[in-house]
Amino acid sequence: MELKDMRINGERLQQSLEEMAKIGATPAGGVQRLTLTDEDKQARDLLVKWMKEIDLEVTIDEMGNIFGKRAGKNNDLAPVMSGSHVDSQPKGGRFDGILGVMGPLEVMRTLHENNITTERPLVVVDWTNEEGSRFSPAMLASGVWAEELDRDWAFDRTDINGKRFEDELIRIGYKGTLPCKQSPLHAYYEYHIEQGPMLEREGKIIGAPKGILCLHWYDIYLEGEANQVGPTPMEGRHDVLCAAAEMILKVNELPDRMGGNMVATVGEIQNYPNSRNIIPDKLHFTVDIRSWDDDLAINAWNKVAEDFRQIADRRGCPIKIEETWRVEHAPFSDKLVQGILDISSELGYSNLHMVSGAGHDASYMNHLAPTAMIFVPSIGGRSHVEVEETTWEDCTAGGNVLLHAMLRSANEK
Ligand code: GLV
Ligand code: MN
Ligand code: MN
Fold first, then answer.
1. For the whole model, what pTM was predicted?
2. Which of 129, 221, 226, 286 is deepest in the core (most CB within 10 A)?
């Protein structure tokens, strides 16, 4: 068979995704596979087993990133890497992340059964803690690998119950010995569901984002005064939940106030003691700001942080603000993005040049090597929810684009 006629096995990709979807399956059809939980471990074990079945050289680094390497003709050349994550959101979907690990694995399986050796080595990777919902921030381990985040800081991140990242990594048996440190890459591809409505709206099969928006994460802590709700007059209260309510609306109004081209969200809140008859006295909430324009996002934050301070002052609720994480917008390699569009057309798949509003490990990889992503449609534009869905046909289409993109880069001398 000529290389250009090669296709992945869509049924095998479907079976692998269905097998993975059983791990952490939720009653409503999604998955809950939070980072470094027993479900994450089970998915990793299965991935490693599948990697070994096709003779990939498996290595695990000290952040738990799993690499499966397929030798090339010239192993002195920098490899072509593709991957994503096996962790999920709480009550997340069956495609976010895992498609980007099963996709390149299927590419490797296809090359394996056809006895194809590329010029350069190929690597499939599972990055630890992409989602950032159990341990913030997101993209934690690719950030350490890219040497943009500090390893020991990452080890000390804690979940809502105070459990440390490193302790949980050791507990599930995935703290490897390899230093978590970048090595040369020729190209990085990440295959993912779109997680938004554009492809469906435009009736296209393949999306090639020109890049990823910046992501800025903040953590806000408020302190007030608890008391019995009945006898305590309304005046003079220091109610942290009321202060937070005002602040949350300020966040929601921020994109309009800044003239658009950004999104701003409060997605997480912990209120204490969370009893209907106690005035709340401790609260934590998160702020997520995204834009293609990094300066706009920072100006927006400065404005809203000033609002927060005024509200906290007026309500007598001391505030602590943590600027937890910032990753700049990531404009991908024009050459690789154009390659995705061209390959899609050659394979007969309609395609769209677009932008990614969701964050991906590709943001950090983009600092190290020419990078591009391949998107396939999310039905109803829904993601980070149990009803997240993509057709098997579209999963296969994206897999074929990934196959030919990886072949193209891996045969460059
Ligand atoms: C990652 O899933 C993000 O976009 O927050
Ligand atoms: Mn993802
Ligand atoms: Mn996600």
1. 0.97
2. 129
